[in-house]
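Customer escalation, tier 2.

The customer says the design service returned an amino acid string that "doesn't look like it belongs to this structure." They asked us to rerun it and document both sides in this ticket. The original structure tokens are below, unchanged.
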């Protein structure tokens, strides 16, 4: 399958080292997959990386660590990450797709008619360039299916079925190919969805290792202890939506700051990824502390169990940083090398509120 990933997929894992990207890479070309990277996506990922990097520096300045941090020149930092990003992509032997051939006139017409992926307010130029790149790739002489992976379901998919392209996009396909498109363009709302459907579902299930991990008798790996010793290393600072944790929508920039306790491990699944690697996924019920930003008065009058962070609070600001403790379930994936007995990749896939009342 010919794969095109939107920038929001790469921005979830700037290092491309998480379990999902590593699973995608395993036997990538043996499966017959190929990766195509639109130039607009490459450039946006680099810019987004620097924006987040710069925001970290601003936060450090705010809490008084500025004297210990040197912020590199913006161009130098962008070039450094661009080199790194391209090196990671090279493992997939990717093809770079130049800007699409669509005219400014056609883009303007789509914007004026509010055709997706344009929004009612006229935004959507970047997304329209990405979609036009997908169409250009579809126009090449090939019968190989295309997988388009993007978290932007609002602008690319049908309102009823987020696995189906929006009617405006299907209309683009019909207009351009007039029924001559002999392959499918599949839409996936996340890389995890693609990997689950096309990779995990084909892997051998290792029930014996599942049982041994469940009763803590598997040599070299105790899941509860691994979380206690390592989870902050790969989960610290990970941003979640308020809804994922069961917090009000008024909170923003919700980040996992630390884990107080690991209560339970369940639903362990183990699959054979390669001759040397196994993929382990499980649910971990934990007590976590989350940091967030919110309106000062909303915090004071609506959230009884929240602790304002005095170290980053400025009395002149309407918004403050605060923290809250919640019992949640983390869905975690590990890649474990059975030869070295080492975890080689780890990732928090998602989080949701625990069913147990605190």
């Amino acid at each position: 399958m010919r794969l095109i990933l939107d920038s929001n997929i790469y921005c979830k894992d700037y290092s491309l080292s998480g379990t999902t990207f590593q699973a995608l890479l395993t036997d990538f070309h043996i499966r017959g997959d190929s990766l195509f990277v639109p130039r607009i996506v490459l450039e946006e990922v680099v810019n987004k990386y620097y924006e987040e990097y710069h925001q970290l520096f601003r936060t450090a300045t705010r809490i008084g660590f500025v004297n210990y941090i040197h912020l590199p020149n913006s161009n130098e930092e962008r070039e450094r990450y661009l080199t790194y990003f391209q090196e990671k992509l090279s493992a997939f032997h990717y093809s770079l797709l130049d800007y699409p051939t669509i005219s400014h006139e056609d883009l303007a017409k789509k914007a004026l008619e509010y055709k997706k992926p344009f929004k009612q307010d006229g935004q959507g130029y970047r997304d329209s360039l990405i979609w036009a790149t997908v169409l250009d790739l579809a126009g090449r002489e090939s019968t190989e299916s295309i997988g388009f992976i993007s978290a932007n379901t609002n602008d690319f998919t049908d309102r009823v079925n987020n696995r189906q392209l929006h009617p405006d996009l299907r209309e683009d396909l019909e207009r351009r190919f007039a029924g001559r498109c002999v392959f499918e363009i599949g839409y996936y709302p996340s890389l995890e969805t693609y990997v689950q459907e096309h990779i995990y579902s084909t892997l051998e299930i290792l029930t014996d290792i599942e049982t041994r991990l469940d009763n803590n008798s598997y040599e070299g790996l105790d899941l509860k202890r691994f979380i206690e010793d390592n989870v902050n290393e790969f989960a610290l600072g990970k941003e979640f939506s308020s809804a994922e944790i069961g917090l009000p929508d008024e909170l923003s920039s919700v980040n996992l700051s630390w884990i107080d306790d690991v209560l339970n491990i369940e639903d362990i699944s183990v699959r054979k990824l390669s001759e040397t690697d196994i993929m382990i996924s499980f649910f971990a019920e934990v007590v976590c502390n989350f940091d967030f930003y919110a309106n000062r008065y909303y915090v004071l009058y609506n959230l009884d169990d929240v602790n304002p962070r005095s170290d980053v609070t400025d009395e002149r600001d309407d918004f403050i940083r605060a923290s809250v403790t919640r019992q949640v379930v983390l869905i975690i994936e590990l890649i474990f090398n059975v030869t070295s007995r080492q975890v080689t990749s780890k990732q928090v896939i998602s989080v949701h509120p625990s069913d147990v009342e605190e």
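Tier 2 assessment: The sequence is consistent with the input. The chain has a mean pLDDT of 86. Residues 25 and 265 are 28 Å apart (CA to CA). Sent an explanation to the customer and offered a walkthrough call.
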